[in-house]
Amino acid sequence: MMVVMTSQGGELDLNKQVCFALYRASRALTQLYRPLLDELDLTYPQYLALLVLWERGPMTVRELGHVLDLDSGTLSPMLKRLATRGVIERKRSEEDERSVVVHLTERGDALREQASAIPDRVAGSAALDVEQLTALRDSLAALTDAVNARRTATRGNPE
Amino acid sequence: MMVVMTSQGGELDLNKQVCFALYRASRALTQLYRPLLDELDLTYPQYLALLVLWERGPMTVRELGHVLDLDSGTLSPMLKRLATRGVIERKRSEEDERSVVVHLTERGDALREQASAIPDRVAGSAALDVEQLTALRDSLAALTDAVNARRTATRGNPE
DNA sequence: TCAACTTTGATTGCGCACAACTTAATTGTG
DNA sequence: CACAATTAAGTTGTGCGCAATCAAAGTTGA
After folding, report:
1. pLDDT value at A33 more than 80
2. Residue range B76-113, pLDDT digits in tens
3. A150 Cβ neighbours under 8 A, 6+ residues apart
4. Which of A117, A129, B51, B87 has the least C-beta neighbours within 10 A?
5. Which residue out of A14, A16, A19 would a mutagenesis test of the B interface target, given it has the greatest number of B Cβ atoms within 10 Å?
6. Long-range contacts of residues A51-58, Cβ cutoff 8 Å, at least 24 apart
7. DSSP state of A117
8. Chain B residue with minimal CA distance to A148?
9. CB atoms within 10 A of CB B80
């Protein structure tokens, strides 16, 4: 059996390993949040949406989707569930009736205080120091941006 | 308004940023794989399962779940779909009738060659060098292992 | 002015993920 | 042996995530 000794094989393996590590880590994290969020009856994506609303105030579905990188196919049902539970409210914009503005209810605001304890409790399982976390965050951001740029670039021009 | 000047706020923010970066990056990656895997009519999780079978040969659902960090609630329907399409076959183990051994069919083996082109095509969108990728992989692994260890440790003893 | 186009959000359909539960086989123990 | 406990898969129900499609509202230009 011939073995060609370039770094290619290794690099491709490295790529696969990074992708799988990412897939595993992402699921592990939502698992870490789950028991904490269960107390508030929230899922991790719902918590992310509320974080944005808590920090930035009311915004349209479109804006929220832009911040979270989620489309209406994901957001619409999720916001509907949050609205049913009285955490948020949706109403059509008056300037542009196509847009739907999402805003917190009193109940949604109140959740913020309960949720404020979550970061402390998650932080305990860090296993990485501040420098490593910063590097990790930046690497992930660079990778995501590159991938998203490639996707939009490739969309009209699939090689 | 009192502002306490410790590094705590920043670190908690950093944690949130890392978690969200992970969530985004994971989805961006499956998006990157999607058009390539569409040609083989595979999803990313299905591709991962086949990678394991290609590299390690037949194994039980349990073993596959251990490698991929997935439980039977996820694997059973997924393997059923792959079996329906004739990519894999499942049969009860003869030593232990509780176990189901998963193995590739001829068609599943053939897919391997078509899939062999995928890593090259994904690698193009790297945006990170080998060192950064290695660091990323190792950080993610450390983080995932810590989280999983904490979860199993906490399970019987929720603080 | 009004038909063509674009934008926004909702809907549909499918495939994960995962908790909770069920069934069947095996193991351990008195 | 009997029988409780454990283990392996499968099933059910819920909630994403996303492609594809749709309808309504707004914009544009001949």
Report:
1. yes
2. 999 999 999 999 999 999 999 999 999 999 999 999 99
3. B32, B124, B125
4. A129
5. A19
6. A51/A115, A51/B16, A53/A88, A53/A102, A53/A103, A53/A104, A53/A108, A54/A104, A54/A109, A54/A112, A54/A115, A57/A103, A58/A101, A58/A102, A58/A103, A58/A104
7. T
8. B28
9. 12
